[in-house]
Q: What sequence folds into this?
C-alpha cells in the first residue's frame, strides 16, 4: 500500500526509543493537586466549589462558562484546600482549585454506565462529551463538544482519528493505541454518529507499524479504515493530515468542517468512549515523561492537577544538569521555568534535558529552506522581514495568519533565526490591528 | 517556592545541525578541485592571486566589522573566504597582485559591507569587485596568459571565446577543441578553465542540496536554446551550445556565482525567471555584444531583479484557491 503524505515538512530526530515499548503506568496521585479552571482553548470555567468543601473523583468543580469553554472535574477525592491563583504551564497564573487528597479515591456515585452507547442520538453524545469536559488531547485543548457540532450547512462525511504523534519523543498516543485499541475505535464510531459522518479513517505514521497492524486487525470488525502515513513532521497537524488522507485542502482561514471532516486525536477518541460509555469525566490523561534529563523515562496515566515535579520524581527525578523543561513535544511544546505547574488536559508530555548554549544567530542568507519546508506553503523569511519592518498589511497578504506555528521553518533555518517567534509577534499585531478596525 | 529555574524560550526547541558557516564551507570544499586545477595550470600566478585576494578580503572584512562594532568572529563565517576564492578565480592569471588587492577591497567594501554585510547585499560581491576591475583596468583584465602546460606564443594568445569572437576561429578552423575546454588546458581566468573540476564541485553541492539545481539548469538551458538556434541556422559562423557551456566563465558563474543564496530568488518561479534571464543575457552578449564573454554582467544584471522577483511571486498557501481554475 502506498504511504500517504503531504508536501514539504521536515524529518527531525524521532528519539522515541526511550519510552516506546514501555506500558502506560498509573501515576499515584500526590497529596495536593492543583486543578486550574482554565485548561482549554476559550473561556475559563466558573468555580462551583468553595474552600473547605469535600469533593469526590469526577465531581464537577468548574462549569463551562460559554460554548467555547469546558467543565473541570475533581481528579481525586478530598477537601478543597483553596481556590486561588496558581502558576500554570501556559505562563500566566490562573484561578486554580487546590484539593487536599484524602487518599480514598472515592468515585462520584452518580457516574453511571450507558448500556448501548451506539443507540444514542447525536445530541445525547454531544451532551455527555460536554458534561465530561473533554477537550482535544493532542495539545491544542479545543473543546471537543464544539468539534462534534458541525454547522447545518456543512455536512461531514469523514471522521479522522489522528494517531500520527509526529512530535519527537512523545509515545503516549502510541501506547494508547497499543493498549486500548478498541476504546479508540469505539470512540471514533461515536464521533461518526455525533457528526453524521459516513466513515472513520485512522491515520498512523509508519514508524508505528505495530500500532497500525493492531488497529487494522481490530478495525476489521468496525467500519473504520486504518491508513499508514509517512513519518514526517507535522503529519499530525490537522490540515496536513486531511490533505494526506483525503487530498482535500482546508480553505485559508477555514476549519476542517469546510471540507466535511472532523479530526480527533486518539486520546480524545478514547476519552469520548470513556465519557459516553462509562460516564467518566476527563480527570486523567496519558502523557510521556522523557528527555535525557529524566532518569527513567516513562509513559504515564496521570491525574489532572498533578504537579510536574511529582510526575518527574515518579520517573526517577531529573538530572542536575537539566536546564530546559518542556510541556508537550519539542517542536511545539511550551518551555517551563518551574516544576510547580500542574499537568493539565493539554499536557501530552513533560520533557527535560540539558540544552547546549544556543547557536549563534546570523542574518538571513535567503537560502529559502524555510519556504521549502513550510507545510502551509508560506514564506517564513518574508513574513519575518515584514514583521521586523512593520509592514503588517504585507504580512497579512502573505498569509501570516495561516501559520500553524509548527516550527518546521525555524528547525531548518541555518541562520538560527527565531522565525516562529517573529511570526507569533506579527500574528498578534495583525490581529490587534484587525480588532481595532472592526471596533 | 521553586528551586528550579529553567531556560524559557519559544518553540521549536529542536534545530537542524546545519548552519550558515557549514553552508559556506561546503561551497569552499566544492571549489577545491577547481582551485587545485588552477594551481596546476597557472602555477605561482594562481597561488599569488589566491593569497592576495584572501588576505585583502579578510582584512577588509575585519576592518568593516571593527568599524561597525560587530563580533570579529563573523570573519570566519566563510562568506569572505568564498568571495576571495571566487574573485581570484575570475581574474586573468597575468593580473598584477596590486590590482587583485584593489578588486578584493571593492568586492568586500562596496559589494557587501556597505549594504550591511552578509545577507544584505544585492549583488554578488566577487562580481562587484571584478566588474570594478574590468571597468577601471580594461587592458590588464583582458591580457591573457597561457597555462604552464601549453607552449604557445604568448603575444597573440587569446581565450577560446576571444578567439571565437575576434579571430574568426570557426572559419580559420582554430576553434578550441571541446576536450581542451573540458580539462582546462586553455587560456582564461584562473579558476574558470577546467570544466571537469568545476562540475565535480557541482555534484557535491547538488548532493548536499546547498545550491538550487534550477539555477545552473535554467542558465544552461536558456543558453543552449539561444545559441543552439543560431548554430543550427549557421554552423559556419556560430559555435555549438556545448562549446558555449564549456567555454569562458559560464560554468563557474552558473554553479558558484548565480547560485549565491543571498543574491538569488527565494521562490521557485522567481528562480526560473532569474536563471533563464541569465542564460539569455549571456547568449546575447557573447553573440552580439562588444565583449567575447558576458557571464559577469548577466549575473549582476539579474541580481538587480531579485528583490522584485521575491515580492512578485508569493508561494501558494495551502487551502488557497488555485488561480484560474
A:
Amino acid at each position: 500500500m502506498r504511504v500517504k503524505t503531504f508536501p514539504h515538512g521536515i524529518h527531525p530526530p524521532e528519539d522515541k526509543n526511550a519510552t516506546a515499548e514501555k506500558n502506560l503506568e498509573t501515576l499515584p496521585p500526590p497529596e495536593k493537586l492543583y486543578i486550574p479552571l482554565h485548561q482549554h482553548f476559550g473561556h475559563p470555567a466558573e468555580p462551583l466549589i468553595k474552600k473547605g468543601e469535600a469533593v469526590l473523583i469526577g465531581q464537577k468543580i468548574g462549569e463551562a462558562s460559554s460554548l467555547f469553554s469546558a467543565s473541570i472535574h475533581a481528579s481525586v477525592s478530598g477537601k478543597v484546600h483553596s481556590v486561588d491563583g496558581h502558576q500554570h504551564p501556559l505562563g500566566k497564573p490562573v484561578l486554580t482549585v487546590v484539593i487536599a487528597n484524602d487518599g480514598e479515591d472515592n468515585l462520584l456515585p452518580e457516574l453511571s454506565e450507558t448500556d448501548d452507547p451506539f443507540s444514542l442520538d447525536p445530541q445525547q453524545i454531544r451532551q455527555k462529551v460536554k458534561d465530561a469536559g473533554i477537550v482535544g488531547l493532542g495539545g491544542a485543548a479545543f473543546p471537543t463538544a464544539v468539534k462534534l457540532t458541525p454547522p447545518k450547512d456543512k455536512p461531514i462525511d469523514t471522521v479522522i482519528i489522528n494517531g500520527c504523534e509526529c512530535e519527537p519523543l512523545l509515545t503516549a498516543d502510541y501506547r494508547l493505541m497499543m493498549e486500548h485499541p478498541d476504546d479508540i475505535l469505539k470512540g471514533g464510531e461515536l464521533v461518526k454518529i455525533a457528526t453524521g459522518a459516513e466513515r472513520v479513517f485512522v491515520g498512523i505514521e509508519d514508524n508505528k507499524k505495530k500500532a497500525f497492524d493492531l488497529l487494522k486487525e481490530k478495525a476489521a470488525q468496525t467500519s473504520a479504515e486504518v491508513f499508514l502515513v509517512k513519518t514526517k513532521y507535522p503529519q499530525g497537524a490537522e490540515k496536513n493530515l486531511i490533505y494526506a488522507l483525503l487530498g482535500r485542502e482546508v480553505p485559508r482561514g477555514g476549519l476542517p468542517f469546510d471540507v466535511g471532516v472532523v479530526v480527533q486525536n486518539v486520546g480524545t477518541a478514547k476519552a469520548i468512549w470513556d465519557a459516553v460509555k462509562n460516564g467518566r469525566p476527563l480527570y486523567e490523561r496519558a502523557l510521556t515523561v522523557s528527555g535525557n534529563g529524566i532518569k527513567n523515562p516513562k509513559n504515564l496515566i496521570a491525574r489532572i492537577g498533578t504537579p510536574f515535579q511529582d510526575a518527574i520524581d515518579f520517573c526517577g527525578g531529573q538530572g542536575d544538569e537539566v536546564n530546559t523543561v518542556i510541556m508537550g513535544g519539542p517542536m511545539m511544546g511550551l518551555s517551563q521555568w518551574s516544576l510547580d505547574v500542574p499537568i493539565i488536559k493539554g499536557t501530552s508530555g513533560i520533557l527535560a534535558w540539558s540544552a547546549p548554549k544556543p547557536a549563534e544567530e546570523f542574518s538571513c542568507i535567503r537560502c529559502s529552506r524555510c519556504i521549502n519546508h513550510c507545510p502551509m506553503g508560506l514564506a517564513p523569511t518574508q513574513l519575518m522581514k515584514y514583521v521586523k519592518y512593520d509592514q503588517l498589511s504585507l504580512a497579512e497578504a502573505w498569509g501570516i495568519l495561516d501559520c500553524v506555528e509548527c516550527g518546521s521553518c525555524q528547525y531548518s533555518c541555518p541562520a538560527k533565526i527565531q522565525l516562529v517567534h517573529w511570526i507569533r509577534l506579527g500574528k498578534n499585531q495583525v490581529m490587534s490591528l484587525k480588532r481595532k478596525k472592526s471596533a | 517556592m521553586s528551586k528550579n529555574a529553567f531556560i524559557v524560550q519559544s518553540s521549536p526547541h529542536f534545530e537542524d545541525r546545519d548552519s550558515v558557516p557549514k553552508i559556506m564551507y561546503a561551497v569552499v570544499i566544492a571549489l577545491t578541485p577547481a582551485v587545485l586545477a588552477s594551481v596546476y595550470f597557472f602555477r605561482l600566478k594562481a597561488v599569488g592571486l589566491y593569497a592576495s585576494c584572501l588576505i585583502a578580503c579578510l582584512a577588509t572584512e575585519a576592518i568593516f566589522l571593527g568599524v561597525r562594532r560587530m563580533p570579529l568572529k563573523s570573519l570566519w563565517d566563510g562568506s569572505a573566504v568564498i568571495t576571495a576564492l571566487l574573485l581570484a578565480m575570475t581574474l586573468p592569471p597575468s593580473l598584477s597582485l596590486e590590482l587583485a588587492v584593489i578588486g578584493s577591497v571593492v568586492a568586500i567594501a562596496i559589494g557587501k559591507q556597505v549594504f550591511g554585510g552578509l545577507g544584505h547585499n544585492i549583488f554578488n560581491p566577487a562580481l562587484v569587485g571584478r566588474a570594478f576591475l574590468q571597468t577601471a583596468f580594461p587592458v590588464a583584465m583582458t591580457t591573457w596568459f597561457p597555462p604552464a602546460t601549453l607552449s604557445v606564443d604568448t603575444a597573440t594568445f587569446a581565450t577560446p571565446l576571444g578567439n571565437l569572437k575576434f579571430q574568426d576561429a570557426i572559419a580559420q578552423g582554430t576553434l578550441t577543441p571541446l576536450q581542451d575546454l573540458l580539462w582546462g588546458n586553455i587560456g582564461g581566468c584562473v579558476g574558470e578553465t577546467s570544466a571537469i573540476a568545476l562540475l565535480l564541485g557541482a555534484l557535491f553541492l547538488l548532493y548536499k542540496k546547498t545550491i538550487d539545481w534550477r539555477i545552473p539548469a535554467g542558465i544552461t538551458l536558456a543558453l543552449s536554446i539561444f545559441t543552439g538556434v543560431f548554430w543550427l541556422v549557421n554552423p559556419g559562423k556560430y559555435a555549438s551550445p556545448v562549446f558555449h557551456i564549456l567555454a569562458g566563465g559560464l560554468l563557474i558563474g552558473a554553479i558558484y556565482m548565480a547560485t549565491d543564496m543571498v543574491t538569488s530568488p527565494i521562490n521557485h518561479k522567481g528562480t526560473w525567471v532569474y536563471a533563464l534571464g541569465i542564460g539569455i543575457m549571456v547568449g546575447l552578449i557573447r553573440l552580439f555584444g562588444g565583449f567575447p564573454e558576458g557571464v559577469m554582467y548577466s549575473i549582476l544584471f539579474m541580481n538587480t531583479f531579485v528583490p522584485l522577483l521575491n515580492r512578485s511571486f508569493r508561494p501558494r498557501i495551502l487551502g488557497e484557491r488555485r488561480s484560474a481554475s
User: Anything to note?
Assistant: Chain A has three domains: 29-111+281-353, 117-278, 369-438. The mean pLDDT of chain A is 95. Chain A touches chain B through 66 residues (CB under 8 Å).
